[in-house]
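User: Fold this one for me? It's Post-GPI attachment to proteins factor 3.
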Amino acid sequence: MNFPPLSGQGSLIHWVHRTWGASAAMGGSFWVRLAFLLSLGLVLGSVDASLGDVDPKYRTCVEECQTTGVIGENVISHCQSIENQNDTSVGGSWYNQEQWKQLNCKADCRYFCMMHREGERQSLGLSPVKYHGKWPFLRVSVFQEPLSAALSAVNLLMHFTGWFSFFLLVKHKLPLRPQTRKTYYEYTSLWHIYAILSMNAWFWSTVFHTRDVDLTEKLDYSSAVALLGYSLILALLRTFNVKDEATRVMFAAPILAFVTTHILYLNFYELDYGWNMKVCVVMAVVQLLTWAIWAGLSGHPSRWKLWIVVFGGALAMLLELYDFPPYKGYADAHSLWHASTIPLTYLWWSFIKDDAKFRTSTLIKKAK
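Assistant: Here's what I get for Post-GPI attachment to proteins factor 3.
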């Protein structure tokens, strides 16, 4: 789908009207229109990305803070300790104490300058804007986004418990192949890898929402992209029932190459929030549509669970795209997305276990 020029509101409205009409002409399919809404959100979500951090007053404030360690009545001690230790060698390890102080200094300066600038904007009757891709949140102790951090930790726990119950099912409850003592379910190892990537992504999400520095931000974004890319591969392998190793490699290779290149781009060239959003939304929409269509065509006994996860996941993605500032400084659309994925994760692992039972039962019947 081609996206409209963003130079004027009229051209965007005309594109929306024309494209929505085209989707209706295609039969008014629910999934076609849902994909359209997600794509529209992708366009709108990248128009006003991070207006706060290009504000000259904000940038000047951050530069002065990192030099002096003072913002109004706030004194940032680790910024001053860096200033007073000019004889510290720069050639040490990345993880040494002084470099962590620099990261904390930068993060604290960004936070206090953001809150100072937002206070000025509020006094002028202006609405909040994003800074470095995120809304201005109120801290609680060391937690920069306390609600998102807590919900990320719950999602991590949900994936662990879901994977552990899946592991117990395929290894100890379902029959094993008599010759090899391996599982009948052909996708067992793929779901184990999925579980590792999921727990890794939610771990770094928890860390990032607790303490937002460049390192944790890149680890969070990279982990999320890796998970989405692998989930897309897994969706294609399962829905097309690919069991041959060589064919699996052919399916996976181009997606792995693209995801690896994208992660390298984010880490070593530019952390482009708008471009990353587009990449993630496209990968998510493709796999949601793949699972939804397959559920209808395959007649899987647990397809209703899959449809709920797909529909819920699509609605949750709309929360990510149609964003709003944090209520009372804590709850924004992103934190609500974290909350919505908790029950969906439980249902998702329930479907995976049902799929393992279904495939095992089918293969045993064929063997008899």
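One thing worth pointing out: Residues 1-28, 40-49, 86-92 have pLDDT under 50 and may be disordered.
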